Amino acid sequence: MTSTYVNWGQAKVKLTWQETIQLPEYGLITSVHGLCFYENKLLLVNLNHRGWDIPGGHIEQGENPEQCLKREAMEEGYVEGECKLLGHVIVDHSKNSQWNECSPYPKLGYQVYYRMNIKKMHDFEGKFESVERTLIDPIRVSDYFKGWHEVLAQTLVCALKEG
């Protein structure tokens, strides 16, 4: 397992990568993300107010995690594809002094990660929260994604193994 601490607002949060073929408890999944590939290139989306990132977001009512990723990939990157569960990041707020029972996230939550093999790229319209998309060599991801860290790097390693 790979772990790191990241800044989460004014506090530090521990992130730990867990490669697995099983989803964590549904009610504790805080977001779903996808490492989406087209012809061995990684899709990045330039999100309003956040910069370059991989597609992902929060599960909407009635969705399962895979459906969430497919919706987010379409909304942010205008792509469709087949998904394979890679695992999840454990988001541990135990040492976050800003966390309390009223916080929007559980003390111990999960961000689920998939690999998507893009089968269809639609024309990019930018109607939702992204202003552009790009396909890059995966080894250059940290040149674009300013919040890139070792736990995300481990998700990429797992995604590349599945390719």
Automatic annotation (TrEMBL):
<feature type="domain" description="Nudix hydrolase">
    <location>
        <begin position="27"/>
        <end position="163"/>
    </location>
</feature>
<dbReference type="InterPro" id="IPR015797">
    <property type="entry name" value="NUDIX_hydrolase-like_dom_sf"/>
</dbReference>
<dbReference type="InterPro" id="IPR000086">
    <property type="entry name" value="NUDIX_hydrolase_dom"/>
</dbReference>
<dbReference type="Pfam" id="PF00293">
    <property type="entry name" value="NUDIX"/>
</dbReference>
<protein>
    <submittedName>
        <fullName>NUDIX domain-containing protein</fullName>
    </submittedName>
</protein>
